[in-house]
Design brief:
By secondary structure, the chain is mostly helical. The chain contains ten helices and no strands. It has one domain: Arp2/3 complex 21 kDa subunit ARPC3 (Orthogonal Bundle), CATH 1.10.1760.20. Keywords: Membrane, Transmembrane, Transmembrane helix.
Length: 227
């Protein structure tokens, strides 16, 4: 329980503070440093949740593979703006391995894939946005709902597309002059509605296609290796 509290403190307090530090103090000019700090902080909850022995190594190996699949999926669908399997992979990871694993997969998927797509002041926001979608999906009650009911899983896919777009539009507004403006935010959200719709649809499509094959393999691995 103590580790859980520390983990949520890191994710919900320290990481947002790091992003705010980058925006307010460094005017988004030190985004590489902030991204590295977020990547480091994202790893801590997983390390704290590890037990001694081979299980920890195996779990880290599986999470590394899930991050790699997420990154590769973003590359493959690079030609279609907004239509990406990243959220689906993050959510599936969270369902089978929990909130901390979901957050780690989301945040690392963003920073690693942006080595190809381009690092920038948007990277910390992407890391946090994808990470939070993984964290929410990995909550105990959410994991049960998402596994048992495909309709709820589809609804979460739509929710994830909307939330990701809304969170990234915060960066869009802050990038203009470093100040959040409600009118600008509403204008940015309105302009981004078509992209938001693509995010939502792609999440549903990839979740419906991937949940069974990935889920069966992950469940088998968990059972076989006692993870």
């Amino acid at each position: 329980m103590r580790n859980k509290k520390i983990n949520y403190f890191i994710i919900m307090i320290l990481i947002p503070l790091s992003i705010a530090l980058g925006v307010i103090l460094f005017k988004d000019r030190k985004y590489n440093l902030i991204s590295i700090i977020i990547a480091f902080l994202s790893c801590l909850p997983i390390f704290f949740s590890f037990e001694k022995g081979k299980t920890s190594t195996r779990k880290m190996t599986i999470l590394s593979v899930m991050v790699a699949i997420s990154v590769a999926g973003r590359f493959v669908f690079a030609a279609i703006p907004g239509f990406k399997p990243v959220t689906a992979i993050v959510v599936i990871t969270a369902i089978y391995f929990g909130s901390e694993a979901g957050f780690l997969t989301g945040s690392l998927s963003a920073i690693i894939s942006n080595i190809y797509f381009g690092q920038g002041p948007w990277t910390p926001f992407q890391m946090f946005s994808w990470g939070m979608l993984g964290l929410i999906a990995g909550l105990p009650f959410m994991r049960k709902l998402l596994l048992k009911n495909k309709i709820i899983l589809a609804i979460y896919g739509v929710f994830a597309g909307v939330i990701y777009s809304l969170m990234m539009d915060v960066w869009t507004v802050l990038a203009m002059d470093g100040v959040f403006n409600a009118k600008r935010y509403i204008a940015a959200v309105t302009t981004a509605l078509p992209v938001m719709a693509i995010y939502a649809v792609s999440n549903v499509v990839f979740l419906m296609l991937a949940i069974k094959p990935f889920g069966e393999k992950l469940e088998r691995i968990k059972t076989k290796y006692g993870i």
